[in-house]
Amino acid sequence: MINYATTSLWFIAASLLQAAVVWTALWMGLTTFNPGFTVTGLIGHLVVGQVAGYLLYSFLSGRARIAGVMYGTVYGIFLWVAIALLIAPGLGLFTSPLAVGVNATLTTLTAFLVYGAVAGYACQQAVEDSRQVERPQAE
Asked: How many angstroms separate the CA atoms of 74 and 79, rounded?
């Protein structure tokens, strides 16, 4: 059985690291891309991170022998395209990173890769834990 508390904490960590990548790049002057750091925006970001993480978990739990970090990285690219390039600009949440410039594109892509790698690792651990519970060790 999956440990939801631990897995959710991993997804929160992944979301916070993702936000930290963008904030650090903005603070260091590497990009002008600013999605608008507010408390409500951060809470929304954490909620979306939970939903995206559990979607990845549900996908990985049906697959055997897939490296979670690698799968998560690919998933991060998928999320970047879906959220940063299509959904958020379409809803007017922020400008597409492609329209802002190459630094914004690389910053957001890196942030989503970080999220995907951490979420993939968390999912891999959760899947392995749930499989161990399902198949008790023979004594």
From this structure: 9
